[in-house]
Amino acid sequence: GALLAAVELHKSFGSTRALAGVSFSIAAGEVVAVMGPSGSGKSTLLHCLSGILAPDEGTVTYDGHELGRLPDAQRSLLRRTDFGFVFQFGQLVPELTCLENVALPLRLAGAKRKIAELAAVEWLERLGVADTARKRPPDTSGGQSQRVAVARALVTGPKVLFADEPTGALDSLSGERVLKAMTDVARASGTAIVLVTHESRVAAYADREVVVRDGRIRVSEWQ
Ligand code: ADP
Ligand code: ADP
């Protein structure tokens, strides 16, 4: 069965229809690429799936909980414990080292510094960026920063990783390295990934690909 499922989502911003009846589901541990041209509704779908945005109509159900029926506090707790996020850029704290960035979600959840930092080192190693531990993000390459961001998103052990154009700001070679590291590590830890992108190349790293056009899912194919 599905871990996360959206049924018939509609969402408009003023007169702009962003989602016009989208249904989507993802199983535990599955990697799904959400493709489609710019402006087709991919980010809006991701925001509804992750409970950041309420759809006008339709339901999103995660692990048996209908997100729209949960109180705000419970929904944000769920986001922190079960969901991880990676964006195009700008998600790391530039004043902290890469190690401190990855340890931060655990520190905020109450873990002791030593424990948080040991876990952070382990995740930096898994993503192949252990050598960035003592550097600050602005002193690393774009590809390294994104792998650190993936480590930070996974350090809390989420069930679903939402990645919105995670390689959008990278050249194609470092983009592919980030995608490979992210999908390898997520597969090893059983984390599902909703991977929003407009690059067709990334489909090679996904189990399945769906295409959004004009706020609807138009093509759905199994590889
Ligand atoms: P994609 O991620 O595929 O580029 P989006 O989901 O960002 O598409 O956007 C879908 C449509 O909704 C676009 O026409 C966009 O301009 C519009 N849109 C998205 N978010 C907002 C917003 N917060 N306010 C107004 N319009 C928005
Ligand atoms: P990637 O982004 O996949 O690491 P790059 O070609 O961007 O690949 O970088 C190759 C190497 O060059 C990196 O591993 C890093 O050591 C170094 N490097 C690249 N750009 C920077 C930068 N802006 N600051 C510091 N080091 C960098």
TrEMBL record:
GO MF entries: ATP binding; ATP hydrolysis activity; transmembrane transporter activity
Keywords: ATP-binding, Nucleotide-binding, Transport
One GO CC term, this protein: plasma membrane
A Pfam entry, by short name: ABC_tran
Family annotation (CDD domains): ABC_MJ0796_LolCDE_FtsE
SUPFAM superfamilies linked: P-loop containing nucleoside triphosphate hydrolases (SSF52540)
PANTHER family reported in the protein's UniProt record: ABC TRANSPORTER RELATED, IMPORT ATP-BINDING PROTEIN
Protein name: Putative ABC transport system ATP-binding protein
Species of the source: Lentzea xinjiangensis
